[in-house]
Amino acid sequence: MITNPHQNGRDRQRLAWMIMLGSFFVCAVITIAVPLGVNAYLQNATEFLSVIVQANQGTVSIDDGSDVPQAVRVGEPGGGAEPGATILTDATAVALMSIFMPNSEQLLARLYVYSNTSVVLEQSNTPRFSISDAKPTVQFDLAGGRMRLTVPEFEERPLQITITTPQGTIAIQEPGQYDLIADNEETQVTVQAGKAHVVAVGHYVDLNASQRSVIPTGEMPSVPLGIERNLIQNGDFGDGWNHWRQYAWDIERSDQPAGHINVESVNGEPTLYIIREGEGHAGVEVRQTINQDVTDAETLLFEVDFRIIGQTLAVCGSVGSECPLMVRIDYDDVNGNSQVWLRGFYTQGEGGAPGTPDVCETCPPPRLVHYKAVPDQVLSFETDLIEELKQQAFLPPRHIKSISLLASGHSFELEILRVAILVE
């Protein structure tokens, strides 16, 4: 058999071209696919946000599907929650959920989960790499009960929060304060500050500050409605000292220092921060003049979010008047008599023991029992002033004159995050 040398040459050339073109194609694919793949990974890779659940009252359950749910009790370190976990509170429990960036103290959101509430943490992710265009994302399912959501300003990429209920979906669109109540019949969404997008049965409504919407089961959201009127201005200290007046420190001993008080950013959230280190009595007062008629009020809901980091004086001192935090509301009752509502908060010692009364013995009645808080933990306290005064056989307010925030003792440190008096 005679081989044609010209044919062999053409075959070799064809093979060479195929190898060269194949190599070019493979090189082109690698050149394009590898950067695209790396970019897709950098854009889409995520990690869990840090979600810590603490008990403000009672025992809170964190059910992650394991055989034994985690129980978090008052005074114990918080428990972590990952996507899929259900946070449950019974009639005696209140939970605090704090959401942080991974390995950071940067607060993204805080939720107060009230009694008889079930909340499922559906999603809590953030981009793993800063080059990603995605946002930190949190999704909750409020199966039933009540929750209050605080979203502070965040200078970097904003947090994307979605809350589903049996009746609809709520997308939080701005930093602010939000209240949600859900049961089998309806969902109520209240925007104290911020903006929310509410969707149900193919219809939507946008809520701005001081608006709310009701979603009955199987129906569209209601048009924006009015909400409770907050008598306190700048109650979250977002405008610094605006509407508040600070009084001079009261120092018992001239050789001892005063304390420090200022509106500061704590974990990205404006906070009234107060600290004093010394011996002997020291106290400071911050006051806001209100001057509002509340004759027709059905409820006067007082709320305060705070954290007492530490104190050296047991309870509130020997006569119960030196609490690290004391709130005083001056008002006229329906008969025109000048009255005072006052409540103290502390973390150390046992109230009612000899030398540590659990009421302010030198204050005017009604002498309400001081509230013992969990040390170094953000707490939310609320009470209906009208109902509480009624229980003490006092007439309801007709005119709210002012509110004072007082801090006193020897050495103490605390933060006040928010205070409100909501009139309905």
What does the model show?
This protein has 424 residues and is mainly β. It folds into two domains: 48-226, Jelly Rolls (Sandwich), CATH 2.60.120; 245-423, Jelly Rolls. Helix content is 11%, strand content 48%. The chain is built from two helices and 30 strands. The chain has helices at 5-44, 385-391, and strands spanning 46-48, 50-57, 59-63, 70-73, 79-80, 86-89, 94-100, 107-113, 117-127, 137-151, 160-164, 169-172, 176-182, 186-193, 196-200, 203-207, 211-216, 229-230, 245-246, 250-251, 260-266, 269-276, 282-293, 300-311, 325-333, 338-346, 371-372, 379-384, 397-409, 412-423. The strands form three sheets. It has a 17-stranded mixed sheet that branches. The model has no long low-confidence stretch (mean pLDDT 89).
Q: SS-based structural class?
A: mainly beta
Q: How far apart are the first and last residues' alpha carbons, in Å? A: 107 Å
Strand content: over 45%
Task: Return the domain count.
Answer: 2
pLDDT < 50 runs, ≥5 residues: none
Quick recap:
This protein is mostly beta strands and 424 residues long. The chain is built from 2 helices and 30 strands.
Detail the topology: elements first, then pairings:
Elements (H helix, E strand, L loop, with lengths): L4 H40 L1 E3 L1 E8 L1 E5 L6 E4 L5 E2 L5 E4 L4 E7 L6 E7 L3 E11 L9 E15 L8 E5 L4 E4 L3 E7 L3 E8 L2 E5 L2 E5 L3 E6 L12 E2 L14 E2 L3 E2 L8 E7 L2 E8 L5 E12 L6 E12 L13 E9 L4 E9 L24 E2 L6 E6 H7 L5 E13 L2 E12 L1
